[in-house]
Amino acid sequence: MALYDRSSPADSMARGLGWFSIGLGAAELVAGRSLARWMGMEDKSALIRAYGLREITAGVGLLALGDPKPWIWGRVAGDAVDIATLASAVGDDNPRAGNARIALGAVMAATALDLVCAAKLHQEETAAWSPPPDYGDRSGFARPVDAMRGTASDAPIGDDMRTPKILQFQPAGQSQASSQPSRAF
Amino acid sequence: MRALVWHGANDIRCDTVPDPQIEHPRDAIVKVTTCAICGSDLHLHDHFMPGMEKGDIVGHEFMGEVMEVGAEAKGALKVGERVVVPFTIFCGECDQCKRGNYSVCERSNRNKALADKVFGHTTAGLFGYTHLTGGYAGGQAEYVRVPFADHTHIKVPNGLTDEQVLFLGDIFPTGWQAAAQCDIQPTDTVAIWGCGPVGQMTIRSAVLLGAKQVVAIDRVAERLSMAKAGGAITINFEEESVVERLNELTGGKGPEKCIDAVGMEAHATATLDSMMDRAKQALMLESDRAHVLREMMYVCRPAGTLSIPGVYGGLVDKIPFGMSMNKGLTWRMGQTHVNRWTDDLLHRIQDGQIDPSFVITHTEPLENGPEMYKTFRDKRDGCIKVVLKP
Ligand SMILES: NC(=O)c1ccc[n+]([C@@H]2O[C@H](COP(=O)([O-])OP(=O)(O)OC[C@H]3O[C@@H](n4cnc5c(N)ncnc54)[C@H](O)[C@@H]3O)[C@@H](O)[C@H]2O)c1
Ligand SMILES: [Zn+2]
Ligand SMILES: [Zn+2]
Q1: What kind of fold does domain B2-170+336-389 have according to CATH?
Q2: CA of B301 to the centre of ligand 2 (A)
């Protein structure tokens, strides 16, 4: 079972990164075209919008889902894709290469944070793990289970708690109707 | 006095607050000797239930000694008597109480007007459980005011420890009613989602009521080991398919009776529907996660029964209602009518049929309560049930 603690320091960091993802994703989605133009990558504005969707998904996942670890690794993978995309735009043939380099630097910084967060989450998991206690002797019953089965089958349970007769499962081959005494003709 | 006080999401503190006083002649004041943290308290702690206010004292599973009795409750209760207090406050006289439907008592909710508006018609007042159900101060405290005390109590006979009887106030009758309203037949397979304290009590109840086969579902190893001790076949939902296993165990027909002892904070598994639920809940598009409900509706045998002791607070999304309608399923649900069952259950404890204290894994002073909420919620340290001593 994956272990996680949704109130630990590493988890708060993961949540922080989740909000960051949502913010960045929304910006990419809404301002994809101007962002692309600013970096000299006009031909990639659709791609940047798609990256925005990816960021939002990761963000929601980090904030909402039980175990943040898969989502943090998802972010790391996304960072790698961003870096590859930006790397194609930092060459001298791009008049806006300077801006693309700034973006590349920012993505690399975010990648570093993601990696730190992932490492911390895994550390916490290792530290928290100890073999689960075995409660196999805690039956709560005075005697073995099979001796207790049905002990209370005569318990006082009101008719309002019972399944109406008509809805009860009948023994195979005996419908409610056919269990009535049959009338001879 | 000292009491556990709600300050907001994830923020319950042990504060010093004024002692409670008799406010009505039917009140009593009880000095709490033992109380517990219930799964329902987690919904407040995590702030999934609407209607809490800063400063509310929490806790609804508690017992103790009667310190003071109002003039109109004196016939029924004496100073010095030992009582377990049911979490449902009830008048004992209204139409619903006369039918034993104590958790929907028509008179014990002092915020009736609010509840009428939100639920259509009011339900009973509850201790330490939101202003929708009366906003009454709870029992994770040194002292509690018990309204309608002439009815709202269970007297404890001599010779039983606090730990043996404490759960008569909530989880034992809750597990019992969950099983009882399934009308268990000796041929039935009963599937129970959730092996928390309520699930554990439900498993024992289903065995006592004579189920042929009890199947318990969770993912926490130690909870599954306790379920097995109680006679259940276990399914770890993170390791195997719940639907496939249940069909296998029932000759492909599905369990006749399905019980949701999880409620609105069902965990995300690898299934898409529960991931969507968590995401929507985080974005406040729905309040409750209905993964277990959907799974029950899907796997239950046609003409079978769904019993829902698990608590839901508000809206659920994507309920395959057509499936339920076409399969002709019966739905049973509700807060527990505690006192309807407690005479019988007390006898079973005295008889030695069952000792509900098996579920206790942690006993701590009240001051450690805030920390223990987290231990219980995060299932750390093998925690299944926490008992607190004021
Ligand atoms: N009806 C009533 O009067 C009443 C009274 C008491 C408690 N309750 C409710 O009963 C529920 C359980 O209470 P508890 O004290 O046992 O709490 P708990 O939180 O300890 O137990 C819930 C269990 O469900 C398991 N679970 C989560 N997702 C699951 C899934 N998808 N499938 C199977 N198991 C899953 C968890 O691992 C946990 O062990 C809560 O909703 C609580 O509010 C109702
Ligand atoms: Zn409870
Ligand atoms: Zn009433």
Answers
A1: Quinone Oxidoreductase; Chain A, domain 1 (3.90.180)
A2: 29
